[in-house]
Amino acid sequence: DPSLRDLRCHLLDRHRQVQQTFTIGHFWNHDDDIHEQWALICRYMKDGPEHCFDDPLDRVITLSPKGTLRNCWMLVCLMMGTTFFPLRYTLMLPIYGALTLSRWITFKTCRAPVFPPELEAECAFAEDDPHTLPEPRFMAEFASDPAIYARALQRHRERMLWR
User: Fold this and answer.
1) Where in the sequence is the domain holding 39, given as residue range(s)?
2) So what's the pLDDT on residue 120?
């Protein structure tokens, strides 16, 4: 889809030739979302993790990186939007099922990036680091907290005003 955008990282060799490329984070359909993601990374790099978020309730990871069938199903439901959502278990089940299975197979056949051990060691988090965000086991796990869910709705409304 040409309207989708994502943030990419290129690993260069000493001659500045691209050796590998990987995506950071999730894809979006609006430039403002990518700019927001990049601004978060810049704040983290410049000011540290304690200054990354405007509100403590924003300190949450929504999407799970785990390639489980549940996560694949939930993302398909999210990406298909609200129009077909009521039909996901009936008329649309073959489409939702095929998309879920395709995504799951993609996760199972892709390899995770492997970084040099010295880079992994340099970037490792201390176990007691207060700024480490817990990774959800499944998509929207932390949305069961009413305060986090209310803040997510508020942020969504604010984002819609940008456009």
Assistant:
1) 1-52
2) 94
